[in-house]
Amino acid sequence: MIIYKKAKASAGKREHTHKFTTKNLSCGDEVTVYLKVKDGLIEDASYEVIGCSISTSFTYLLIKKLKGMKVQDVLKIPPEGLFELIGVEPVSSQRFKCALISLISAKKALQR
Description:
The chain is of the alpha+beta class. It has a single domain (2-110), classed as Alpha-Beta Complex (Sufe protein. Chain: A). 36% of the residues lie in helices and 26% in strands. It has four helices and four strands, in the order ββββαααα. The chain has helices at residues 53-66, 71-75, 81-86, 96-110; strands spanning 2-4, 18-23, 30-38, 41-51. Strands 1-4-3-2 form a four-stranded antiparallel sheet. A hairpin with a 2-residue loop joins β3 and β4 (41-51). α1 (53-66) packs parallel to α4 (96-110). The chain is globular, with a radius of gyration of 13 Å. The N and C termini lie far apart (29 Å). Mean pLDDT is 90; it is low at 1-7.
């Protein structure tokens, strides 16, 4: 497991209006997404990850893309759309949950 916190500019807890933590019980990955939303737009986003390199990398890339997006557009992203959004090739089916955990957290945060 890689414990990845404040090494990147978007990592770590920041001022937020929405927050959600998702845990993958099968492997132990845990992702918390913090979103600052105003007038239907994500003004800022940050995260904390305890997990493998795939969940960490995908979370970092997703958080960078979320900044400036409309909430309604994020909620419409299908699971398979994550790969295109962040510009990477799909992962194997065994690692799909690792890649998807950040999108799940972001959507759940926005639905609260």
